[in-house]
Structures are given as structure tokens and as C-alpha cells.
């Protein structure tokens, strides 16, 4: 009761200073934007992947954490705005793990996914790949993905390292096998002209990465299919553990992981095949790599928030579609579950 009272008093104190602010009323631990619409989720994830948080100083981080602590305990100083509180929460969530409260290594933060991942995408799409370079870039891409997944994992329950290694090895093996296999097939296809063969080779990374992403999701989260995941009623009460909800969660996550690399690995080859024909790049071939890097960065920056905004983080499902024992355990017509990222 005391915590509720202090939080309420903090909110009341802050509201007076926010009468003229355009920012919505601050809610500790809640998203700033509505998650029921695609646009709201899109704006929410734009905040999460904002690379500007990579440059936040240690002092600014401490100030943000302290501001949120003051709000929580009702000791917020007068004049603090909703915008300042939302900004502080954005900084804390971008840098500190929500379960361990430890700093996430910069390249593995969600805000670092695009800046540190773009050079890998450029490498994946380099023309005239050798067998060694194909293996290297696919390995590096899956290694980066695995580290990002592990660094941002749910750490409330201990997860064996063997499960992480299993998912990592499965993703690397599937990505490398598919990429190398497709490259070999293209090389042996005599009916293609050299120009057509080069163009097709540029699209090889997409099926390799998409298949590896699905493999990674299934292997890393296979335990959810066996044990089920928690489903909650409209009041947030635990109803039970559902294997059917787990299948829905994995399907939605796998679909997101297929959609994500599509614009990143499909659009740049199309754009570059057109740009390479321009007189500017034909006269200045040294500009090819910088231009391709900019194209990949733009595609990555657009694809990531669009893909992860497809489904709500907390997805809804009708209880009639779930196991009979769960449907009988609640009077709610629908329940929600954490889909995961």
C-alpha cells in the first residue's frame, strides 16, 4: 500500500508540471505508445533501436536511473516533465538488462543491432563470393544474432548454456550449408549468363539467413513446445501453461525472423544492380562499396522496426482455441501470452 501511495503521489506531482506537455502521462515500466496498433508498436520499437542511446555517458545513465528511482519512491523533484521521465526510461531500457540490471555489451544491444549489423550485411551481399568468404560472413552473421539473442534473453529463469550452443550451432550449420549449396548450384548452371549468375548469387544470402533464423528460433525455444508458456487473463492473473499458445508464439516469432532479412537482403541487390549501370558508378568503381553500405543501412533501418512490429509483444488468443483445462480455468474469452522477440 505504501508503494502504491508513493507512486501515486509522484505521478500527481509530475502531472502539474506536465499540463502543457505533449508527452503522454508517464507510466513506470510501460511502453510510451499504444501496443494495440501497428503504428504504436512501430513507434515503440523505433525507440528501442534508437542508436543515439549508444552514446549516452555513464553519468547520464546514472541520472536516468536515479530519476526513475525517485519517481518510484515518490521523491521526484518539482518540475520534472513526462518527457524527461520517458527519456530516462528509454535510456535505462536501452542499456541495462531488465532482469540482471547489468549493462549489455554495446554491439549486442538492440540499439546497436543496426550499426554493428550493417557491415555484416554488406559482407553477405558482396559480389563474387568465394567459398571461404561465404562461410565466414554466414558464420559471423549467425554469431552476431546469437549473441544479441543471448544478451537480451529472459534471465528470470536459469537457461542451460547447452541450449544456447545447440541453437547457435544449428543456425550456423544450416546457414552455411544452404548458402554454399545454392552457390554451387548457381555455378554449375550453364544456362545462365555470367551477369545473370552474379545477380542470382546476390540473392543467395536471403534463403540461407531466413532458414537459419527459423532453425535458431526452434532450437533455442524448443522447450516451450514441450512445457508450454504462461497465459494470462485480462487482469494479468496466471491461468495456466499452454503448449498451443507456445506453438502460436514460435510461429509468430519465426515469421518475424523470415520477414526481417527480406528487405535487408533482397532490396539492396535490386537497387545496386540498377545503380551499377549509372555513369557515376561506372566511372568511379571505388564508390560501389560506400554506396552499397548506405543502401544496406537504409534497408536495415527500415526493415527491423517494421518486422518486429508485425505482432504485439503480448499476443492475444481465444481461450476456446487452447487446451480444455485452460479454457475451463478462466471466464475470460481471451488470454494473452508473451510472444518474445
From TrEMBL:
Keyword Membrane: yes
Family named by the database record: Belongs to the sideroflexin family.
Subcellular location: Mitochondrion membrane
Membrane topology: Multi-pass membrane protein
An annotated GO BP: amino acid transport
GO cellular component: mitochondrial inner membrane
Name recorded for this polypeptide: Sidoreflexin
Amino acid at each position: 500500500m505504501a508503494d502504491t501511495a508513493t507512486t501515486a503521489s509522484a505521478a500527481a506531482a509530475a502531472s502539474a508540471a506536465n499540463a502543457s506537455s505533449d508527452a503522454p502521462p508517464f507510466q513506470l515500466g510501460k511502453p510510451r505508445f499504444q501496443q494495440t496498433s501497428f503504428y504504436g508498436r512501430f513507434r515503440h520499437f523505433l525507440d528501442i533501436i534508437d542508436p543515439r542511446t549508444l552514446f549516452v555517458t555513464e553519468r547520464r545513465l546514472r541520472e536516468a536511473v536515479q530519476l526513475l528511482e525517485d519517481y518510484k519512491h515518490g521523491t521526484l523533484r518539482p518540475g520534472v516533465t513526462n518527457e524527461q521521465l520517458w527519456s530516462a526510461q528509454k535510456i535505462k531500457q536501452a542499456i541495462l538488462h531488465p532482469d540482471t540490471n547489468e549493462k549489455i555489451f554495446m554491439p549486442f544491444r538492440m540499439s546497436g543491432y543496426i550499426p554493428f549489423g550493417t557491415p555484416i550485411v554488406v559482407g553477405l551481399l558482396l559480389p563474387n563470393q568465394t567459398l571461404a568468404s561465404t562461410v565466414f560472413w554466414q558464420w559471423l552473421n549467425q554469431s552476431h544474432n546469437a549473441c544479441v539473442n543471448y544478451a537480451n534473453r529472459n534471465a528470470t529463469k536459469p537457461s542451460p548454456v547447452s541450449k544456447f550452443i545447440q541453437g547457435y550451432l544449428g543456425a550456423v550449420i544450416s546457414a552455411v550449408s544452404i548458402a554454399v549449396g545454392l552457390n554451387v548450384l548457381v555455378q554449375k548452371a550453364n544456362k545462365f549468363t555470367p551477369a545473370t549468375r552474379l545477380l542470382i548469387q546476390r540473392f543467395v544470402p536471403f534463403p540461407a539467413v531466413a532458414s537459419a533464423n527459423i532453425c535458431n528460433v526452434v532450437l533455442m525455444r524448443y522447450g516451450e513446445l514441450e512445457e508450454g508458456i504462461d497465459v494470462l487473463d485480462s487482469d494479468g492473473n496466471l491461468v495456466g501453461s499452454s503448449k498451443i499458445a507456445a506453438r502460436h508464439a514460435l510461429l509468430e516469432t519465426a515469421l518475424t525472423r523470415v520477414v526481417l532479412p527480406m528487405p535487408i537482403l533482397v532490396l539492396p541487390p535490386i537497387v545496386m544492380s540498377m545503380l551499377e549501370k549509372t555513369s557515376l558508378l561506372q566511372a568511379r568503381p571505388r564508390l560501389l562499396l560506400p554506396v552499397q553500405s548506405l543502401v544496406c543501412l537504409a534497408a536495415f533501418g527500415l526493415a527491423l522496426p517494421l518486422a518486429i512490429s508485425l505482432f504485439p509483444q503480448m499476443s492475444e488468443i481465444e481461450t476456446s482455441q487452447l487446451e480444455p483445462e485452460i479454457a475451463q480455468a478462466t471466464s475470460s474469452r481471451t488470454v494473452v501470452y508473451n510472444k518474445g522477440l
